[in-house]
Amino acid sequence: EDPTGSPTPKATPVFSSDAAALKAAEKAYAAYLAASDAVASTGGQDPERLKQMVTSKWYPNEVKSSEELKAAGIRQIGASGHSKFKLEQIDRRRAHLSAYTCIDLSSVRYVNAAGVDVTPARSGDVPVEVSMVVNNRGNYLISSNEPWSGQDFC
Fold this sequence. Notes:
This protein has 154 residues and is α+β, with helices and mostly antiparallel strands. The chain contains 2 helices and 6 strands. The protein is globular and about 50 Å long.
């Protein structure tokens, strides 16, 4: 209640159900991965393409990753994918969601300016925890996208 004793208006949930929220979040995450792949395929050029897909707080992480690719003279070939997009936590009133997913890099290679494959050794999918918020236009924005350090769920 506010100080006058009137009830505080309750926020309307952004999505009608957890399933609807998860489906929308997974669609937004797939679009983010595709855009991220596009930036990496040009060696980190134009990370601004991601600006509308991430929060302003997360965006510097995207710029840093792009700068690292540029400085190393590395570009990506192939596209990443994801699977097992699973809800971790949701707050539909505050329009926040976190999920686990598995990033499939099996089709991704990295090459240097001479075209030499410099892909690091890796095994299997990469478990990731992604957090998202919904902006005032109803779009999910990535607020973090970090490798999961707990038990591998992929």
